[in-house]
Amino acid sequence: xxxxxxxxxxxxxxTLHPLERDHIEPLKTAVADGELWKLWFASVPSPQRMxxxxxxxxxxxxxxxxxxxxxxxxxxxxxxxxxxxxVDEANKRPMLGYTxxxxxxxxxxxxxxxxxLLLRYAFEQKDAIAVEFRTHYFNQVSRAAxxxxxxxxxxxxxxxxxxxDGSIRDTVVYSILQHEWPAVRSHLLSRLASNRDIGEx
Length: 201
Description:
- With about 200 residues, the chain is of the alpha+beta class.
- It has helices at about 25-30, 50-60, 110-125, 140-150, 180-195, and strands at about 10, 15-20, 65-70, 80-90, 95-100, 130-135, 150-160, 170-175.
- It has one domain: Gcn5-related N-acetyltransferase (GNAT) (Aminopeptidase), CATH 3.40.630.
- It has five helices and eight strands.
- The longest helix is centred in the middle third of the chain and has 16 residues, at about 110-125.
- It is globular, with a radius of gyration of 16 Å.
């Protein structure tokens, strides 16, 4: 049995559903709002690539990873996706990323609560020792969002990955450790209470 379970995570604003093929068309609509795939440093699929993107995430879930579609509780609208990936089951250490939202969902509390639900699940239900985040060195919006979560920078992997345009990505690595979670949880709950989102671009 995989360390991460197939589970629905529900909050006040959003619900995270295990990613399915039925989410492909709603996610095409979501990603068209903002056209984030046009950012050269972001790993966001275009509508044309959404089917292979979702199928790839579903295949990865069979290997112990966990991808989610994010829906608004008020309307049921799918507004984005996020996932645990490169899960190190032996050490109870997942990476958290592949997060993107429709532009209309940014700065609304969606990302804040999504991260709260995911981190709470990892630390409180699965006893993770750490949760890791990675992003492109030049993705300043994502880096700032990760830092506002309370994650701390571990370092930079230079010449880490080749991008679709042929450029080489330097990857910035962050993490939240198990003993840091209570403070991070309080921080996220406070941000939700004040309705200030830490949207990740």
